[in-house]
Inverse folding.
């Protein structure tokens, strides 16, 4: 019982130390009343949900996945199809397959649509994950990348359901800054709790030493499947919220550029910790906004830099430098609670030595 209480205490500390600063930041941004800043903060928090989902699998398993954005796309389209007003659906989807005809008579409340989309995304992840989790290393990365390509092609070509290359319109624009705050709080709480459960610890053990993990009876494919399914469902939450935030989107919205950004954020922040996922998003978003400002209008005495692709190129260079100089990322793969424990124990250590 004592161990269980200690686990809940660690979970509460980690969740609180990550969520509370984000809530304070959202409040401060909201107080400015600046629409552009509120939009930037909202999109950053939604993107953070997808990165937390990526960390839940890749950070705990050590297997890099490029498929989180694919599941975000699945959830965004699923929630859109369920929540677009009934009166708009006949004109938007005149050629729905017979087994999806019922969609023309359904228009769910957005929260329910998001919930169903997340559950559906988790189910797809479970089915797809059964063969994928048996792969490791380069093969696993290629497999997840292949899945992203498959989903992108399906969304682009299945015009009767996804409108193909045309933009999905009519999606209720419901996601606000506070919805994004609630979403990231839920994502962080679930991810933090998972990595402290037996399932999460087994997956982390397989990351540290797969042979030792197997020798004590840990089934690596099963543990990876749990982490994969949960991580993809969290990414689906981010995708559904994003769809209801921008209201108009297409397959290109969830393309390779977004995949690169999410992986870069996690690698730069620190692949092995939930704190790294949060820090990586904040650092990369701030840097990306700075670079985009230089590209489009300049900043103070710095003139506008007419260099298309500057943001992506600089981020790629930074990610390369981090991989070379600090492979564990800015956080060193450690959680924020570790830093607090060190600060708390430092005075007592000094008094003992004295």
């Amino acid at each position: 019982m004592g161990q269980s209480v200690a686990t809940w205490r660690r979970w509460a500390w980690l969740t609180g130390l990550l969520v509370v600063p984000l809530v304070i930041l959202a409040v401060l941004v909201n107080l400015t009343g600046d629409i552009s800043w509120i939009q930037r903060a909202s999109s950053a928090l939604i993107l953070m949900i997808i990165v937390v989902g990526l960390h839940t699998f890749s950070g705990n398993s050590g297997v890099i996945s490029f498929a989180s954005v694919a599941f975000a796309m699945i959830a965004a389209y699923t929630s859109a199809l369920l929540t677009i007003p009934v009166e708009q659906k006949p004109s938007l989807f005149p050629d729905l397959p017979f087994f999806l005809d019922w969609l023309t008579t359904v228009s769910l409340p957005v929260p329910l649509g998001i919930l169903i989309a997340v559950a559906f995304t988790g189910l797809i992840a479970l089915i797809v994950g059964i063969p994928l989790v048996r792969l490791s290393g380069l093969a696993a990365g290629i497999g997840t990348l292949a899945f992203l390509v498959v989903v992108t092609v399906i969304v682009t070509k299945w015009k009767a359901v996804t409108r193909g290359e045309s933009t999905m319109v009519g999606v209720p624009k419901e996601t606000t800054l506070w919805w994004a705050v609630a979403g990231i709080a839920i994502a962080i709480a679930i991810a933090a709790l998972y990595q402290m459960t037996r399932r999460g610890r087994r997956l982390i053990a397989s990351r540290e030493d797969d042979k030792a993990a197997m020798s004590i009876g840990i089934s690596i494919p099963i543990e990876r499947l749990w982490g994969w399914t949960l991580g993809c469902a969290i990414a689906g939450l981010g995708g559904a919220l994003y769809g209801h935030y921008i209201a108009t989107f297409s397959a290109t919205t969830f393309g390779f550029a977004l995949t690169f950004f999410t992986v870069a954020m996690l690698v730069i922040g620190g692949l092995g910790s939930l704190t790294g996922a949060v820090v990586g998003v904040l650092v990369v978003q701030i840097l990306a906004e700075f670079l985009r400002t230089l590209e489009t209008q300049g900043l103070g005495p710095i003139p506008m830099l007419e260099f298309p692709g500057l943001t992506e190129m600089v981020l790629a260079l930074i990610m390369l430098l981090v991989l070379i100089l600090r492979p564990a990322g800015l956080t060193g793969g450690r959680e924020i609670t570790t830093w607090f424990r060190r600060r708390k124990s430092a005075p007592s250590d000094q008094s003992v030595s004295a």
